[in-house]
């Protein structure tokens, strides 16, 4: 049985996700307009979704780039280094910013509260992982 290198696969996936986010950001006006028409929603929903997704996209891409750097470091067998701890800190911060943006948007479209809670939980998870990494390093 062949050994699967999950770290390399994860690096490829982060690259694919970054490309997908860029494509979705480019197509967002068309996708949101189509959704609003098909779901028979208010026209203002399209604006709300775009005004929420566009500020979140750079922080999502930034977080994926930090994850990619962390995975590259793990691939090089350099797990307990300061750069990984720093990358986890920045990833957690990006998740908090996304959560803050989506909480504000949740006032206008309730499903964004679920997105905010998800990113807040993800931020907490990354923060705990960072704390564990710091403890192992010491």
Summarize the structure.
With 138 residues, the protein is mostly helical. The protein has helices at residues 6-38, 43-75, 82-106, 111-137. The chain has 4 helices and no strands.
Molecular structure report:
This protein has 138 residues and is mostly helical. It is 86% helix and 0% strand. It has four helices and no strands. The chain has helices spanning 6-38, 43-75, 82-106, 111-137. Helix 2 runs antiparallel to helix 3. The protein starts with 5 loop residues before the first helix and ends with a helix. 20% of the residues are buried.
Flag low-confidence runs: none
What is the percent of helical residues? over 70%
If helices are DSSP runs of H or I spanning 4 or more residues, what is the number of helices? 4
Helix-strand sequence: HHHH
- Estimated share of beta-strand residues: under 5%
Key phrases:
138 residues; mainly alpha
Secondary-structure blueprint:
Layout: H1 6-38, H2 43-75, H3 82-106, H4 111-137
Helix pairs in contact: 1-2, 2-3, 3-4
């Amino acid at each position: 049985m062949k050994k699967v290198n999950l770290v390399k696969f994860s690096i490829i996936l982060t690259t694919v996700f970054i490309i997908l986010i860029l494509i979705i950001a480019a197509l967002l006006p068309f996708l949101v307009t189509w959704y609003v028409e098909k779901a028979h929603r208010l026209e203002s929903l399209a604006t709300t979704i775009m005004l929420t997704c566009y500020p979140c996209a750079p922080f999502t891409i930034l977080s994926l780039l930090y994850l990619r750097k962390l995975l590259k470091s793990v691939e090089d067998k350099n797990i307990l280094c300061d750069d990984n701890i720093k990358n986890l800190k920045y990833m957690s911060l990006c998740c908090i910013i996304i959560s803050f943006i989506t909480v504000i948007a949740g006032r206008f479209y309730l499903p964004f509260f679920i997105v905010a809670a998800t990113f807040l939980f993800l931020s907490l998870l990354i923060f705990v992982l960072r704390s564990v990494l710091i403890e192992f390093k010491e």
